[in-house]
Amino acid sequence: MTAVNAPAGVADVPSGLPARVPTPEPGDPRLARLALNQRTTANWSLREAIDGCVAAGIPSLGVWREPLAEVGVEVGARWIREAGLRVSSVCRGGFFTSADPDERRRAYEENLRALDETAALDAAALVLVPGGLPEGDRDIRGARSRAAEAVAELAPHAAARGVRLAIEPMHPIYAADRGVVSTLEQALDIAEPHDPDVVGVVVDTFHVWWEPGVLDQIARAGDRIYSYQVCDWITPLPPDALLSRGMVGDGHIDFATLTAAVAATGYDGDVEVEIFNADVWAAPGDETVATMARRYIELVEPHLSPRITP
Amino acid sequence: MTAVNAPAGVADVPSGLPARVPTPEPGDPRLARLALNQRTTANWSLREAIDGCVAAGIPSLGVWREPLAEVGVEVGARWIREAGLRVSSVCRGGFFTSADPDERRRAYEENLRALDETAALDAAALVLVPGGLPEGDRDIRGARSRAAEAVAELAPHAAARGVRLAIEPMHPIYAADRGVVSTLEQALDIAEPHDPDVVGVVVDTFHVWWEPGVLDQIARAGDRIYSYQVCDWITPLPPDALLSRGMVGDGHIDFATLTAAVAATGYDGDVEVEIFNADVWAAPGDETVATMARRYIELVEPHLSPRITP
């Protein structure tokens, strides 16, 4: 909250405003749980993302399957291991709301491949994005049922590989075309029939900050929080709804309260910064990572440990 | 669903696609509950909107306070009465989430004026748009509490004037900057402590179509549904989030199911078409109204009467 120690001339991405706190150095213990989601630096290859994390002292990476496929799972997994990084999540499985049996079969098989990759990377979880309404289909209740069925179908295969499935509830702005599971409550309803070590949820501040009762739902989630992701809700909303996420601290989200609620469940995993935003992507990756680290230190990390009353 | 009887050369607004059904004539009994919200034909003055409704056989108008103020409440009310129209709603009261006592006082007084206008127009309800987060304020729970308090403060004044207050839950896309009440469930939680003849809700398909459990919430609302509004959720979302609404039938919303659920509560009020969309606004008002009437006849009106099992 103070700019006193911020080095002159350092600007935040993408606001261009002066940095409010110094950039933490590699090895700073406050960075111990920070993860870069690859989409935050979308122009970086997997190799560049690994090197960028190492250079900035970010110990964990959220890996996307597409850039991983460019080098192959085996090579990617080795690079990550040799760099000493953790994999906070693999993005993405899911997209299993089709009403067409052939398409559902293809989605199922694709998800099995995603499970194998997640296991090979020893990642904390496979993120499941449920998918939207099929073309021309207006039955959102049906699509939600199929999402729940697909999770149930996948769960034993995940368990067999020691992989955790993290259902990602998505902001209702994406209910039609991306994710029919719209609230943390709904994601937990889908997860709860399953083993708490196999099926859980992603808590992404962008998706759930507005949800009535979200703090109760976070408490309810307990050990089922497999991934905590942070990015901000900014206004006016950028023109492309898919790129509408803001840098932590640029918008309306109360990170202190949400982070404290997640921490109170005992969550001790990584905190991943995932930002889809054209202005962020236009900046050099290392500046994005530096801003992300500063904002995390300022707004998120102080709330990660439950306060102990003496 | 058939284009068999559609006159050649008639196109829908804004899609430009051929009309799928004939435009209903004035006097068609299927138009008996259709209302034009003034913002759907935003370029029309109040006088033009009244004349447009009469010409198209639309019996009811959702009035906005700004165009009403241009001619004055007394003149506007007389025009509407002389034209034989009903007023399905007055837009808008609310915007009472400020944390500043002076601003809250001003909002309260503005809402009292809105109540007077609603009474003068003999409108079915005053629509309350709660308002967003105050500038720089990230406490959405606090803003929601203030919205509930403001409704409680306003209720006796509404009752004294015989005006009904319709809380409008808004799609979470607007939670930060327009409406912190994000679900029908939340709106009903605010309404329920009050007299069911004084405080109720708007059910707007655009805002609630994605809500988990929305059909149960509509049933719960019962007599508290004061306004049923229809417009569609389209993808890709237009660049301006405030103008992202689609013509009924152009998007992903299941009007049959939602309309039948509203009808099953015994709702017998008007059905208002409210569309904020730059492409709709670029079209001549009479073409917009004609498209709206066709889509209503095709997709909404057949589901308005609860089916009687013989």
TrEMBL record, chains A, B:
Instruction: Read off the Gene3D superfamilies from this record.
Output: Divalent-metal-dependent TIM barrel enzymes (3.20.20.150)
GO molecular function term, any single one: isomerase activity
Keyword check for Isomerase: yes
Keywords annotated in UniProt: Isomerase
Q: Does the record's keyword annotation contain Isomerase? A: yes
Q: Where is this region: Disordered?
A: 1-29
Q: Where is the Xylose isomerase-like TIM barrel domain?
A: 65-284
**UniProt superkingdom:** Bacteria
Q: Which PANTHER family match?
A: HYDROXYPYRUVATE ISOMERASE, XYLOSE ISOMERASE
The name this protein carries in UniProt is: Sugar phosphate isomerase/epimerase
Q: Which organism is it from?
A: Aeromicrobium camelliae
